Amino acid sequence: MFISNPFAELSALIPPAFMQVFVVVMIVLVAAGTLFDVVHKGSARYFFDHWRKSRVKGAKQIDAAGLAAIAMKTGVVDVLASGEFCSARRRVAHLLTMYGFVAYVGATAVMVFCYPTPAVPTPSILPLLWWMGGLMVCVGGYWFWFFIRADVAAEGNSPLRVMHADLFVLSLLASVTLGLIWAFLQSRGAPGTSVIFGLHILASTVLFGSVPWSKFAHMFFKPAAAFEKRVSSANGLRSNLPAPADKPEVLGSTRAQPRNY
Amino acid sequence: MPTFVYMTRCDGCGHCVDICPSDIMHVDKTYRRAYNIEPNMCWECYSCVKACPQNAIDVRGYADFAPLGHSVRTLREEAKGTISWRLKFRDGREKNFVSPIRTTSWGSIKGPAEYAAPAAADLAGQELAHEPGALKVKGGLPALRPDQLKRGVA
User: Fold this and answer.
1) Average pLDDT over residues A57-62
2) What is the mean pLDDT of chain A?
3) Fewer CB under 10 Å: which end of chain B, C or N?
4) Beta strand B71-77 with B34-36: parallel, antiparallel or unpaired?
5) Are residues B67 and B121 in the same domain?
6) Residue A43 and residue B8: Cβ atoms within 8 Å?
7) What DSSP designation does A167 have?
8) Is residue B82 part of a domain?
9) Is any Cβ of chain A less than 8 angstroms from the Cβ of B90?
10) Chain A touched by B98 (CB under 8 Å)
11) Mean pLDDT (whole number) for A72-90
């Protein structure tokens, strides 16, 4: 099951061209939705305005090499390692979901376009990557959804509470979970496979088609915010924050780690 | 002037929701970012500003504290036990302060019921509950005796 290409098996029912067109439509929906999001919410204008203000008000001017170094650090620390998260649990959950999603989507695209039928044998690493990615999304996503969400963890609401902000995470979890269930049922030849596949397609369409209304586009504006934060820190403006304090020898009483959150 | 949240900085961790004594910092239902639901009930205690690990919350101080157009921002450094303040006036002048974090350990403050009940005669005394012990001043607070007071001063 873990080393067989589920899309090649599906080609007996659905023509590979249909699957490929569907993937292309999803990519177009994400690109168009993100562009609409950037224009509609004015996020690009906001960041460029901040950028200009920061350059004018900053105590130091950063040259091109400095900017490249900051961009590199942002990419490695804030994007690839989710360094912006303050909580280790949230960071681990985000890393699991992010890398799982990348592996899952990447393996899906390669299998659909390069190995669409059983006539072309699929390298076993691809289905394995697809399963591993899907399971990582499920572990990270359900962990976040049931235990880490701020309105559950901090406000004590029901873990089953659903609101607009959950559109992205819920459609992602539905899409991946249904995809894994469909692949499992298909490999066993179980009844109901087509129904689960239909629901998987529906959830995937909602996930990729709801970009302007969900937080899908955060993967584009969060790195921009992290970059702007690092530039502001490097040019001395520090977003008007104070400079880090010199470590005092004795300041206040013996302190214990607060446990109220 | 109440708190406001820079949405691009906030990661929706909920620390401000947890610490707000007015219970007015909530998580937005559309974007899962913190926001102040009732700005006119905010008393600018700066609890959320200091607690925010992303420095995503800001407050515009009152005009009697610094003229409008200023910026007051704080940086809480847990490991150093410090809170730094940076006040920028609109003419560009700056004032910087560092103060200790005085976080009291969770559960270390006794509730009123955990103290021994006061004697009825204590009602006639000048000392408040738990004084003089709670003052931690040897011999109690220094006070003037009646014979040290001037009489007939208009």
Assistant:
1) 80
2) 88
3) C
4) unpaired
5) no
6) yes
7) H
8) yes
9) no
10) yes
11) 91
Helix/strand/coil for A152: helix
Q: Is residue B128 part of a domain?
A: yes
B29 with B56, same domain: the answer is yes
- Is the Cα torsion angle A147, A153, A158, A160 positive or negative in sign? negative
* Structural domains of chain A, with CATH: 6-43+63-229 (1.20.950)
Q: Is residue B148 part of a domain?
A: no
B105 vs A157, residue with greater confidence: A157
**A140 falls in which pLDDT band (50, 70, 90)?**
very high
Dihedral sign (CA B142, B143, B147, B151): positive
Q: Which pTM value belongs to this model? A: 0.79
Higher pLDDT, A239 or A203: A203
Same domain (yes/no): B130, B91: no
Q: How many CA atoms lie within 13 A of B147 on its CB side?
A: 0
Query: What is the domain extent for residue B37?
Result: 3-100
Interval A64-74: pLDDT, tens = 899 999 999 99
Q: What's the structural domain count of chain B?
A: 2
Question: Is B43 an annotated catalytic residue?
Answer: yes
DSSP state of A121: P
pLDDT in tens, B56-81: 999 987 777 788 888 999 999 887 88
Work out the pLDDT band at A181, boundaries 50, 70, 90: very high
ipTM above 0.85 for this complex: no
- Are residues B23 and B92 located together in one domain of the fold? yes
- B82 forms bridges with which residues in the sheet? B77, B100
A–B interface: beta-carbon pairs under 8 A: 127
Is B21 in the same domain as B45? yes
Q: Do B75 and A245 touch (CB under 8 A)?
A: yes
Q: Is B146 inside any structural domain?
A: no
- A261, B53: Cβ pair inside 8 Å? no
Residues of chain B predicted below pLDDT 50: none
**Residue B70 touches chain A, beta carbons under 8 Å:** no
Of B73, B75, B101, the CB nearest to A244: B75
- Percent pLDDT > 70 in chain A is 94
> Which CATH number does the domain housing residue B49 bear?
3.30.70.20
Same domain, B70 and B128: no
A95: region left, alpha or beta (phi > 0 left; psi from -120 to 50 alpha)? alpha
| Nearest CB to B30 within list A87, A164, A242 | A164
Element (H, E) at A110: helix A88-114
Partnered with residue B84 across adjacent β-strands are B75, B98
Mean pLDDT of A240-258: 68
